[in-house]
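S1.2 Input.
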Amino acid sequence: MELITRSLVQTLLPPRNQLGHKGNFGRVYVWGGCTGYTGAPIYAGEAAMRTGSGLVYVGVPTAIYPIAAAQCGAAMVQPLPDDGELLERMQRCDAVLIGPGLGRARETEKLVLALLRELTVPVVLDADGINAVSAHIHVLDGRRGVTVLTPHEGEFVRLDGDFLPGRSDRERSAADFARRHGCVTVLKGPGTIVAGPEGTVRRNTTGGTGLAKGGSGDILAGMILSLLGQGAGPEEAAACAVWLHGRAGDLAEAALTAYAMTPLDLLDWLPAAFKDLEE
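S1.3 Output.
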């Protein structure tokens, strides 16, 4: 097992083309949100922009579009089109995130599974995207593109019924799941694990209890999405994102305390986390 450290991330982070324009830095798509969960896709979209994406699209249900559009800054919020056009929009992007605040309506879960069968671009599955596949794991096995899953331990139990929080070997469990299903598994928690399908296992060294709040995971998923869209490999994108996410959390916690910091503070401290890599 390898530790995810500052020096490792410095070697893995995709370089910026100094002559580049917005089309060179990734076109990414976030699909999420439902009534009662309007913030999750916005957090993810803003995190993707903060992590360097050139173009960020956020697709949300028409019912919450006015709320989401008012909340969003640089990312472009769109009401969801019909199913066929949604697939076309996603296929035109460099990476797709499915799940933040998506909800668990039966029709939504069916659409998640249908999209996963057709999409060939890299996909990050988070939150309800993970819940949608938990009873249909075979969909992961048959995917034609890269898949990164970002479960917390409760979600991982639904994916892997043999996993016992607090008792199972987290590194081995994540590695076994990644190998069996050909995906990158980001098992969140203290010392987040990034496991790849070929046996690579890395454990993060940043982040504290200030991250243990709703919304933090949406931001992490958006960061992984962004780095995938910029051309990083899936394991590299995940490793860089979890370190930067944790480092932003450490900086926010030092300034605000673990009690008072919020997930939105992570977005404010991400610039300092990136700056830390330049020193």
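S1.4 Remarks. DSSP finds twelve helices and ten strands in the chain.
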